[in-house]
Amino acid sequence: MNRKVRFALFFTAMGPGIVTAFADNDAGGIATYASAGAKYGYSLIFIMLVSTVLLAIAQEISARTGAVTGRGLSDLIRENYGVKWTFFAMSVLLIANLGTTASEFSGIATSFEIFGVSKYLSVPAMAFIIRWLVIKTDYGKMEKILLFLCLTFFSYVISGIMVNPPWPQVFVASVTPTFSGTPTFLLMAIGVIGTTITPWGQFYVQSSVVDKGITAKEYGYTRWDVLIGTFFTGFIAFFIIVATAATLFINKIPIETAKDVALALKPLAGQYATFLFAFGLLGASMLAAFVLPLSTAYAVCEAFGFEHGISKSHKEAPVFFGLYTALIVLGAAIVLWPKLSLYHVMLTTQVVNGVLLPPILIFMVLIASKKSIMGEYVNTKFFNIISWAFTFILIFLTLLLLVSTLFPQFVSNIFSFLGL
Amino acid sequence: MNDLKVLGEFYFSQLANKRIWDAKGRRVGRLLDMAMRWDSISPHVTGIQYAKGLHTLIPIGWVGSWDTDGLRLNTTFDPLLTCPMHEDETLIGKWLLDKQIIDLEGSRLVRVNDISLSWVSHEDHQYLVLVAVDIGVRGLFRRLGVEFLLSGFANNFVGCQYIKPLENRTSALQLTREKEQLLQLHPADIADIIETMDYRQRANFLDTLDSQQAIEALTEMELDAQVEMINQMDEGRASDILEEMPPDEAADILGELPLEKSEEILRLMESDDAEDVRELMQYEENTAGSLMTTEYIGLRFWLTTEQAINELRRLAPDAETIYYLYVVDEQETLEGVLSLRQLIIAAPETPLKDIMQTKIVKISPYDDHETVADIIHKYGLLAAPVVNDHNQILGIITVDDVLELLMPERPREEILSSLIALRHQKKGGYSE
To answer: Which residue of A has its CA nearest to B258?
Structure first.
């Protein structure tokens, strides 16, 4: 194969990984990373970097399964584990995605509030527009515009370099495992993992690989797509933490609302920092708010065999449109609750994502290690060991969070006993 | 059939995982799956898989009674007397439950939620017969153990005579009955079904179609799906299929493939078919040339109507339309046109040049699509000839081709191609 052909093939396979990567740094992602930086300085960079590596592994498994089987994850769960397990997995996905949809609407509300528009106006309006546009317009074009808005997050990279943080210290913190048993730290850590590796991201990347018609033969290019996408997720997350740590953590400014996160962009944009932030947040939130409810409705309908597809009429596919609408309406309604802190919605939903991730991971790894499904593309032992280890660590962290919230004294005693 | 009696009706989900006891009251195992044979009329259960990892079955004849607790055998269980699974048997749970099948009655892909079985007696024999698969919500709730929530709902069954599983029961067996059932589907329906499948299912399914059906179905598909299908075939198979497709469709498909692949396919195609396609591929996308087909009927001007009708018999099977006949000379220069009606009602001895019309509406291969549509619409034609500067006929554009252009843009289709898991849609033509 000459180089030109190979290049062309690479670009046709490009896409699923990169879109997922940018949608990963959504409203919840920005809020979580910024909060991690502002509250704990550079110390959570280590957990963020580890979860980025794990994200690469998880996305690789999903993309490979999609390319080899030509099927979505929910389809495979249904055919291999039956109705009850599917029901369980779909319930998990629905709860996680309802939360994430709410966090996207919080992002939308926040960015409009920066421009002085009340959430009681912006959220219903945007919910209506999303519900309407997805069916009426060309999604491809929409996606490009929104991705372009997401590029504004690169301003965190520039800002992070401009504040000139103490790089040796940042580097040391990046490779030093930091841990603490307090509920707030655990919440933050699970939030960081949960926002980097999301349940919906796994379903999404697999189904878009399938939708693009990528087969096992072309899979090599998709692997690069996934790896490059993951790199950007981690790259931007790293600089958000650095920028917020160097501006907010150092000056002991706590983040009360998402607007405070924009302060970290001051070195770059000065007085326009909040506007820059608002545009980026709007783009990321809209992108995810488009994709999420739809991909959830697809996954659920595919698993249970309900008619689905946006080319269908409401009468032909009532469950599909019902679910889709319900997710948007409920997601928006949560945000409209009076006196609710939008910022906390974004943070909490990421923790929920982190807690709900293990069940989905278990199904993914089980399927990818079945020789009867994956043939020669089955998971290697090395991959399996890492995936299982990660799954159990996440479950352990979740349990620890539960225990430390209920009995704070107990966990800190154990930690002090262990000398941590 | 006079003494056919139904003794009981079950769902697979009600039997699955039930305990099995033998006549002495010893526990034998659990009902894990049931083996089935589908030889003559209806598919019937032949044995029960009772333990994990074991490939031997309890013959169905041993089963004495069923109830909510489990199954009771009418003999003493002896593992040595169990029988192995035969080659023409298949496990229903593994083969059907939770899988996608083609509902031949509704011409669509559906998922099996449960399986309905009947316990019938016929001429002193008792059979457990597979009656239908349950594709409804009620079946789903039954599997979850909450069927009572939907007790007012009707079940949604597909009779076993109307199902076509995507995976063959046994690798060796492919019943002719199934092929005949598929023959009854319209190619457009087959195309819809194929478009909702994943690529492995497609490959399997295409193998079960005869080649003519595969070609017709492929012709009915949207271009995107066609390209995907051809791209996933090996070059040999692809060239066989493209040879038989209308050259304009083949050219459209090849134009979308990577250059290397399309060259390889063209090389494998028969040379005159390949040449037609190559010729069509040279035209830009928005021109009349890209729209036309080379399969028109050209008749020499010196023929009599009788000779022409004989010639028509020979040419008609390959032609896109036979309602318009084009009269040409040795250099394929367009001399005139006549309709099928004019040809038939003229006296047998009349030379064509006496009845043909010489005032011809022509299209240049470089005209854009809009011009083509305007011309065909204005003159109310079924087809119009495309000619070059020397008035030589290159091909024709039929009203079908134009109709495809004029159908309002379907943005939904485009959303679909780019959005996530949207592969399970049917063509948007009839929705809303």
So the answer is: A5
Q: What percent of chain A has pLDDT over 90?
A: 11
Is residue B428 over pLDDT 50? no
- Residues of chain A with Cβ-Cβ distance to B414 below 8 Å are 138-140
Hey, are the CB atoms on A72 and B143 less than 8 Å from each other?
no
Helices then strands, each counted (H, E), chain B: 19, 21
Record: contact A138-B415, CB cut-off 8 A? yes
Each residue of A153-201: pLDDT tens digit?
A: 777 788 788 878 888 888 888 888 877 767 788 888 888 888 888 888 8
Cβ separation of A295 and B143 shorter than 8 Å? no
Residues within 8 A of B (CB atoms), A 322-381 only? none
CB contact under 8 A, A84 and B143: yes
Question: Half-sphere exposure of residue B117, counting CA atoms within 13 Å on the CB side?
Answer: 25
Do the Cβ atoms of B420 and A213 come within 8 Å? no
Cβ-defined contact of A309 to B418 (cutoff 8 Å): no
d(CA B361, CA B376): 9
Tell which wins on pLDDT, B92 or B184: B92
Residues 249-268 of B with CB under 8 A from A: 258-260
Sign of CA dihedral A390, A396, A400, A401: positive
Q: Do B98 and A79 touch (CB under 8 A)?
A: yes
- Inter-chain touch A298–B111, beta carbons under 8 Å: no
Window 57-96 of A, Cβ < 8 Å to B: 69-72, 78-79, 82-84, 87
Taking CB atoms and an 8 Å cutoff, what residues of chain A touch B141? Answer: none
* Residue numbers in B near A138 (CB within 8 A): 411, 414-415, 418
Q: Reduced to 3 states, what is the DSSP secondary structure of residue B103?
A: strand
B200 interaction partners in chain A (CB closer than 8 Å): 69-70
ipTM of the complex: 0.72
How near does any CA of chain A get to the CA of B430, in Å? Answer: 9
Task: Round to whole Å and give the CA distance between B199 and B237.
Answer: 16
Residue B110 binned pLDDT confidence (cut-offs 50, 70, 90): confident
pLDDT tier for residue A137 given thresholds of 50, 70 and 90: low
Q: Quick: pLDDT tens for B58-84.
A: 888 888 777 777 888 888 888 777 888
Task: Give residue-wise pLDDT tens across range A79-134.
Answer: 889 889 999 999 999 999 999 999 999 989 988 988 888 888 999 999 998 888 77
Say what the pLDDT of residue A43 is.
85
- Distances from the Cα of A28 to the Cαs of A32, A50, A193, in angstroms? 6, 19, 12
CA separation for the pair B193, B188 (Å, rounded): 9
